[in-house]
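At this stage, I put together a protein sequence along with its fold in token form, as given directly below:
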Amino acid sequence: MALPVVSYPQVNRYLLWGPVAALGAFWLLAYAGLAPSAWVWAFLRLTGVIGYLLLALSVASGALLSARFTPPPWLAKPLQYGWHGLTAGSGLVLVAVHVALSLVGTTHSQPLVGVLVPGMATFSPFAMGLGTVASYFMLAPFLTFAWRRKLPAKWVKLLHLLAYPAFVAGTLHGVLVGSDRLGWAYLGAVTLVAFTFAIRMVEGRRAPAKAP
């Protein structure tokens, strides 16, 4: 079955690239040593937490898109596609800024190889490596969907499943190295993703029974 062609509202682009431009300018100031170290540390944590929550919403909305239930008008499929794309794109961008800030911060600053290669971080290499793996696994579905017209639909759907282990790895990364007490946020994100995943699995098992 061919994948639907999705067009996102123009406002989504402004919502995505406006804050990105501001964060990019802040990173340049941090790289030049002109930004207060306390601000860099605060934005490092903030982008990591918000990026994680946005990606959790993206994973949950992706599971609902695969479900066959009839949504209410305020959650119609076109709106689901729009929010799914917006949360995925925004979350990945914030994670990229989070990684970039870890290169220029004064607290547990990392070399480039430490954030690109799992296990090579100079601080808590296992937990940091989980964050790297989560980023790669979450990026794969996003890129394959962007190239969906050039790739077999089967591969696009298969690679989208990487979002689930990516979410698990990202959650563990935040729990193990996060400096803020955000157990409520992790619990809410895990509950939401688990609930929508359960809906997808239950409907997947029921579908063959309906076939003639």
Summary: The mean pLDDT is 84.
